[in-house]
Amino acid sequence: MWMQRPWKALRAKPLAVQLIWLVLLVEFCLALWERQWPLAGVAAITFVLTLLPMVIVNRMDIRLPTAFLVGITLFIFATIFLGEAFDFYNRYWWWDLVMHGGSAIGFGLLGFLFVFMLFEGDRYAAPAWALALIAFSFAVTIGALWEIFEFGMDQLFGMNMQKSGLIDTMYDLIVDVVGASIGALAGYLYLKGRSMGGFTGVLHDFVDRNRQHFGKRPR
Q1: What are phi and psi of 218, to 5 degrees?
Q2: Nearest-CA neighbor of 189 among 140, 129, 138?
Q3: Which stretch of 72-76, 184-188, 209-213 has the lowest confidence by average pLDDT?
């Protein structure tokens, strides 16, 4: 019985997530068959990383909206598997920009939700602009730390994560700032009761699914 519960939990995930897992499984098996050990390793690591967010939120008693879950899984798949294993970063000049922009928007939204959760959903605990600023700072900080990580990997292990060096780093940081601004703006508009399409929709969905963490949220 204990083996059936994890299996049922995996089958309950969105179809897009299951398709990504299927691709990783097929690639893993093919890589083993062809003795391409690095590719098999990347496929396995990517699969494990797509599971980590689900494990973390389950331990925190948080229910992720479908859009969040699909977005996180797709981002990990596109960044690590397609970006590194299939060299999309070098094959497509815009790949890095899309990944940085998408992650910055996501971290902006997550930063806002985290702060809003600390205030237990109280819209009036702090000005809306203050919460948006914290969300923006959180997302930009994550982006800056990632650039430091890339620099460290290049310097210590002779890798080429920064590609063209300073220019690549500055473009990434600029995209991070733009993406973080979008995520923070969505949080600001949410507090003001305004809409920003799917971005504020995701925030509404998250709060509705996790009312236990937003006790002061108006009914």
Answers
A1: -60, 135
A2: 129
A3: 209-213
Contact 199, 55 (CB under 8 A): no
Q: What is the pLDDT of residue 2?
A: 37
The domain of 73 spans: 1-86
pTM above 0.85, yes or no: no
Domain count for the chain = 2
pLDDT band at 159 (very low <50, low <70, confident <90, very high): low
Number of H helices, E strands in the chain: 9, 0
pLDDT digits (tens, 9 = 90+) for 22-77: 999 999 999 999 888 888 888 898 899 899 888 888 888 888 888 888 999 999 89
- Single out the residue in 48, 64, 86 at which a domain terminates: 86
203 burial level (CB within 10 Å; 0-12, 13-18, 19+): buried
Do 141 and 110 lie in a common domain?
Answer: yes
Distances (CA, A) of 132 to 103, 116, 197: 17, 10, 17
- Are 48 and 29 in the same domain? yes
Determine the Cα–Cα distance for residues 90 and 107; give it in Å rounded to an integer: 25
